Amino acid sequence: MELFLYSLLAFAPILTAFFLLVVANRPATQAMPVAYVVTAALAMVIWKVPLVHVAASTVEGLIVTLEILYIVFGAILLLNTLQESGAISKIRQGLLGISRDRRIQVILIAWLFGSFIEGASGFGTPAVICVPLLVAIGFPAMAAVMAALIIQSTPSAFGAIGTPVLIGINNGLEGSTAVEQEIARLGLDFSDYIGIIAAQIGLIQGVIGVFMPLLLIGVVTAYFGDAKSWKDALPAAGFALFAGLAFAIPYALTAIFIGPEFPSLMGGLVGMLIVIPAAKKGFLKPKTLWDFPERDQWSPAWLGTSTPEISQTTVPMKALQAWTPYLLLGILLVLSRLRVLPLRRWLQSVQIPFSNILGTEISISVQPLFLPATLFIVVVIITYFLHQMKGEQIQRAIAQALQKLLGTALAIGASVPMAKVFINSGVNSSGLASMPLTLADGISQLVGQVWPFFAPVIGMIGSFVAGSTTVSNMMFSLFQFGVAEQSGLSTSVILALQCVGAAAGNMLAVSNIVAAVATVGLIGREGILLRQLLLPVTFYLIFAGLIGLVAVFILGF
Length: 557
What we know:
two-stranded antiparallel sheet, mainly alpha
């Protein structure tokens, strides 16, 4: 009973944010400061976390907030630069040349290109890149944000060159005697064990990933079509499943035979190489064209305050020249993340350390050159010369990017510190485990032997709060391992399900949502997005849970 009570209290910060955003429909700028206050109060009063530790966690969160704002600024600046140079107009013409069907366009840009960017960079980058691009070719801002958030699921399990596994799960398990004993019993070393987990993640995510493009176009047609019907997705179902397979097969094979670094990259890249030529040739093309309603019929909620007006006129620029900034960005992101190349080490060598914040053990180090935003700015500089731009064009691009950040700062500046206080609550005088571990322990006591079905839920909760698959895995991997061992379940399968759930939770991560809406001026509509994203997240968790049950109790993993 005592554990159940503390679990409910640990759930209060999440419930507060959810209620204010989804039920009360308050903007994140109002909801997240309240959620932060609730979290800090519970940490100090119930968990008895020292005030200085709460303050240090808050400072840590504010430092991470600056990193996120820097990334958002870089993405918006790149988009604004391409608008000013006329490249976006040319890109729009090219995409419309492949297909004018919005279902096909969202699969190409959000699912395939977005997955490639997620594999290279992670940390919410696909949304801040793909959202403005979708809006630029005629998508409602709300539809663009939703699409970009939905795809930050399957690829995010291996995002940023395998970081959620190599850093998240690895660091979460490292140093545990129980883990070392289990690995020795299996006759493996630590890297082999991580490789098995990665392969199982790849298999589970690969199965779900086949159906994600179909779910994606279903959500777009159901929420943003004239008929508001899922049936409008069915004529494109063949193409969607084809795109799902084109991504999922190389994704899963890479995870099984190579490891966790490149599945999302390979899935996105191979998928684009297969699907784009097929789309050009009309392979599995729907017989009827689907588009959004006329713009004057769009709901005001669909429109951002900074929706770009793209010229319909022909731009004197070759398609390759227009796409070159995005191609450069993809190449730079990949090169900067490969551990075998010196570029990664050089970018990481510049650090701004914040050690023992306010005299506590909390420390954080910022690597400004390694953040994706720095590469965005490098590409902007190259674009300035490549597209022969004028100084006033860049000045306008910078001014507009800075303006869009203003509404974002408060929401992210409360949500990230809230997450840090929540996560760091294990340093206390109450004898309680941290809030996330207390909550997870309570859930595990309730569900017992059907834990494989609920393991992804814990991962989802971690990402919702922390805004990161990697941090969710770091928080909960050892806990998931312990539950699996006590229940006699496969530890590797349960850890794989943790990562799958964490990837699904990326769709709901408040910091990701706020960063995405900032790029098109949708600040204040986070609650609407959360409500609409509940369906794809629920689908994902149920699908993953059922696969987990089959793997453990039928296939005997």
